[in-house]
């Protein structure tokens, strides 16, 4: 059963999975494993690649129509 819409599933190094709130991801870094840093400062090291996580986040954004907002896409409304 899928989790709440704002969550993405990632895999710990020991193989167990957990869900993470995609809205709180501040940055990702990868060497061998991927480190996810949240806006709270909490860090998680996961097996998922940065690319896999980006795809999950993109899918989440599409599902909640987050990118339908022109301000989120970086588009400015022009005043004439």
Radius of gyration: 15 Å
Assign the CATH class.
Mainly Beta
**What is the ordering of alpha helices and beta strands?**
EEEEEH
The average pLDDT is: 83
Task: Give a count of the beta strands, DSSP E runs of length 2 or more.
Answer: 5
Q: How much β-strand is present in the residues?
A: 25-35%
Coarse shape: globular
Helices and strands: which structural class? alpha+beta
Per CATH, what is the topology? Answer: OB fold (Dihydrolipoamide Acetyltransferase, E2P)
In whole angstroms, how far apart are the ends? 49 Å
Number of helices: 1
For the record, the count of structural domains works out to 1
> Helicity level, as a percent range?
10-25%
CATH architecture: Beta Barrel
């Amino acid at each position: 059963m899928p989790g709440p819409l704002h969550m993405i599933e990632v895999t710990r190094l020991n193989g167990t999975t957990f869900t993470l709130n995609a809205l709180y991801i501040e940055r990702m870094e990868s060497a061998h494993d991927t480190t996810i840093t949240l806006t709270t400062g909490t860090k998680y090291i996961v097996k998922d690649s940065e690319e896999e996580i980006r795809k999950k986040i993109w899918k989440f954004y599409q599902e909640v129509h987050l990118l339908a907002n022109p301000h989120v896409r970086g588009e400015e409304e022009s005043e004439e």
